[in-house]
Automatic annotation (TrEMBL):
Any one GO cellular component localisation term in the record: mitochondrial inner membrane
Protein name: Cytochrome c oxidase subunit 2
Catalytic activity: 4 Fe(II)-[cytochrome c] + O2 + 8 H(+)(in) = 4 Fe(III)-[cytochrome c] + 2 H2O + 4 H(+)(out)
Protein's job: Component of the cytochrome c oxidase, the last enzyme in the mitochondrial electron transport chain which drives oxidative phosphorylation. The respiratory chain contains 3 multisubunit complexes succinate dehydrogenase (complex II, CII), ubiquinol-cytochrome c oxidoreductase (cytochrome b-c1 complex, complex III, CIII) and cytochrome c oxidase (complex IV, CIV), that cooperate to transfer electrons derived from NADH and succinate to molecular oxygen, creating an electrochemical gradient over the inner membrane that drives transmembrane transport and the ATP synthase.
Organism: Macaca mulatta (Rhesus macaque)
Annotated keywords: Copper, Electron transport, Magnesium, Membrane, Metal-binding, Mitochondrion, Mitochondrion inner membrane, Respiratory chain, Translocase, Transmembrane, Transmembrane helix, Transport
Localisation: Mitochondrion inner membrane
UniProt GO molecular function: copper ion binding; cytochrome-c oxidase activity
Pfam families: COX2, COX2_TM
Origin superkingdom: Eukaryota
Membrane topology: Multi-pass membrane protein
Boundaries of every Cytochrome oxidase subunit II copper A binding domain copy: 79-173
Amino acid sequence: SPVMEELITFHDHAFMAMSLISFLVLYALLSTLTTKLTNTSITDAQEMETIWTILPAIILILIALPSLRILYLTDEVNDPSFTIKSIGHQWYWTYEYTDYGGLIFNSYMLPPLFLNPGDLRLLEVDNRVVLPIEAPVRMMITSQDVLHSWTIPTLGLKTDAVPGRLNQTVFTA
């Protein structure tokens, strides 16, 4: 999904900044430990203190701005093609396609005896949710009894299902 592509790009961006900082600190530490030269005038360097105070603030801003952009991108609610309501129960999920005459079905996890070779234990269900490709979908997520987590990792989605609260997320597969 476009959101997951943005998350991967942000991860790479933050990892590069973290790697450069780590290598710079490691180089400074090793050069300080291995050199025999000492300089007493470095304790009075106002310019150096200004640089190592302002530089981390600039790096934090360069990491925070893309992060805020992704946060606002994930909360965008465009005009969705259709809405699916997902209700978490203790051991199963109930899905309701509200735009198609109230089509409702339950999705139960398959017991290990019914798994085929290659199926993933604790992830296979008897009724799967069918989602369109390249169409915005609004998921309204709630819970009947306890806290649940509705997630599709490949789309970069994770929304908590809380009893008494209706959370929504919009995504495009």
